[in-house]
Specification:
Blueprint lengths: L2 E6 L5 H12 L2 E4 H11 L1 H10 L13 H10 L1 H29 L3 E4 L14 E6 L2 H10 L4 H9 L4 H7 L2 E4 L4 H15 L5
Parallel strand pairs: 1-3, 1-4, 2-3, 4-5
Helix pairs in contact: 1-9, 2-5, 3-5, 4-5
Length: about 200
């Protein structure tokens, strides 16, 4: 078994790759971004703290988190970003480290997709770390296809550890400027490399 961390920048394809790798390994998958969304939507304590400590207008009148507004605030105000992370990150880490412990006990493998893996000092929790990377222009094209304005995408990229540093810190690097088929081939090859270490 192995606990594998997958990271990368926005628009690099780390979510797609994580799903491919988990499938090929027969591993469980934890998505830190999805966990963050769930906390924003469903946790009353998180909502109360965000509206009081980060941004009073973080939720719309119907009670849904206004993600675009939250994103604008935190990427314009480093202090607000730090406060938001102080609310969300410990809860997310507790969730996936608990799951990792369960997987280690049952000899199951786990893939954890965590965009800020290095930024949050989480590297020590993983047996192997994979960085999914691509060119800057590919990142911008993919984020534009999701409807994110270029200046917002650039702001997010600037607020993350540079991809070149993430590749240097990883055990494995996946380059994703190509086709989905090419990405799947890389997932298959990596799964072959990881499988023996799961003994």
């Amino acid at each position: 078994m192995a606990v594998i961390g997958v990271t990368g920048g926005i628009g690099t394809g780390k979510s797609t790759f994580s799903k491919m790798l988990a499938e090929k390994l027969g591993a469980r998958l934890f998505d830190a971004d999805a966990a963050s969304r769930e906390l924003l939507e469903s946790d009353p304590e998180v909502r109360q703290r965000i509206t009081s400590e980060v941004f009073a207008g973080a939720y719309s009148p119907d009670g849904r988190p206004d993600r675009a507004a939250i994103r604008r605030v935190v990427f314009q105000d480093p202090a607000a970003k730090a406060r938001l992370e102080a609310i969300l990150h410990p809860r997310i880490r507790e969730a996936w480290t608990r799951l990792a412990g369960e997987c280690r006990e049952t000899q199951a493998s786990l893939v954890v997709e965590i965009p800020l893996l290095f930024e949050t000092g989480a590297g020590r929790f993983f047996d192997q770390i994979v960085t999914v990377a691509c060119s800057h222009e590919t990142q911008l094209a993919r984020t534009a296809a999701r409807g994110l304005a270029r200046d917002e995408a650039e702001s997010i990229i600037r607020n993350q550890l540079p991809l070149v540093e993430k590749t240097e810190l990883a055990n494995f690097v996946v380059w994703n400027d190509g086709t989905p088929a090419n990405l799947e081939n890389q997932a298959a090859e990596l799964a072959k490399s990881l499988r023996p270490s799961q003994g």
